[in-house]
Amino acid sequence: MSNASGLYRAISRSMLGRYAVYAVNLLSMMVLARLFSPETFGTVAAIMVFFTFFRLMAEAGLGPAIINIDNISVEDRNGLFGLTITIGFVLAIMFAALGPIFLMFYDMARVDEVVPYIAVSLFVFAAGIVPTAFLLREQAFYRIATAGLLAEVVSTASAIALLQIIDPLHALAAKGAVSAVALVSVSWYFSSATQFGRPLLGARFSAIIPLLSFSSYQFGFNFINYFSRNLDNILVGKYMGAGMLGAYDKAYQLMRYPLMLLTFAMTPAIQPVIRKHSGDPVLVEAIHSEFVFKLSLIGALAGLLIFLLSDWIVLIILGDQWLNVIPIIRILAIAIPAQVVLSTSGSFFQAMSRADLLFLSGILSAIVMVGAIIVGVSERDIELLCWCLVVAFHINFLQAYFLLYRKIFVVPLRKHLIRMTPAAFIVIGMVWFAW
């Protein structure tokens, strides 16, 4: 299919660029996991959960909204850039002031010492929203990958160097700030080659008004999705401690690597390509059906390999101080096939300009995920929590694709589910062996 081939070409460019970044990320994890303790990782992870929330507030759905626009004046471009920097500065100050609150909430020693580094990361992230969206809009995936690659190399080297002269907790916390500075600096430099050009500070904050109808729904989805995807880390850190949070966070990172290698590398390419055909839902459904069938098979294979090789994966990547990660990642691997496919659905909602349905799907997902997390954490059982999450991911898979197929493609959901049958058999097999 010629139209699908255009999507695959864009995806291949995105994946090739991002794979280099992911390879360096993996090497960084392997090195740092042997230099820093699970407790240190858990303390930083406890604050990173709230950084994710504030980063969401700073972005406010603006990135996808920018990708969808066709033209923008220089004054509006600079106004958007100035607005994001202003919002980032205000949010960074607020975040830094919350240090004592975080310490009181977690009752975790030294967690407040991480806060200043994360506040810097938040401000710098906000500065990168507009130039990064320009690069994504242009499908400049190699340049985006170059920025990510440099950021990971520089930040990992800085963490190792700082470990020799300052406390390990501060060295690891500083890695995020250094990474953000490097990433945004390079992205801003590369944005000069885009259609809209390199943004400069501007005062026309009203430039955001035409984007609000799209970005508000996108922000609403992101806001709700945050709680459904991060409440587990918050509650594990509060009720099970820094060590268990460190192990859980590392297991989740390893489980997410197939998502990073597959869907996270693909999704930046989907929205810019599919939006060109947004007026033809029949064509888009045909492209989607072919695409996710292949993706489901790859995701099922990835999940099965992690399920079978979890002990070797943990020993090779993390080392023997992380053995308690093995049973956690084995259970989470069962959800990989559903997550691999589900992670691409949002880009199709966005490309078809149905952020309202994406928002609705996010509400339903949040209800299911929060319920699952509460059940798992209330029992103080990390393995039960993982099983609850596996069930929740599959329920959300069904509701998201029901909305996509019935409301946008206007065809029965069974057409999609039948194509998922091979992957479903593999998931059932993993569940059977796990029990």
UniProtKB/TrEMBL annotation:
GO cellular component terms attached to this protein's record: plasma membrane
Primary location group: membrane
Keywords: Cell membrane, Membrane, Transmembrane, Transmembrane helix
TM spans (from-to): 19-37, 43-67, 79-102, 114-136, 148-166, 172-190, 202-221, 254-274, 295-319, 325-345, 357-378, 384-405, 417-434
Family matches, as Pfam families: Polysacc_synt_3 (PF13440)
Topology relative to the membrane: Multi-pass membrane protein
Subcellular localization: Cell membrane
Source species, domain of life: Bacteria
Family: Belongs to the polysaccharide synthase family.
Protein name per its UniProtKB record: Lipopolysaccharide biosynthesis protein wzxC
Organism: Pseudohongiella spirulinae
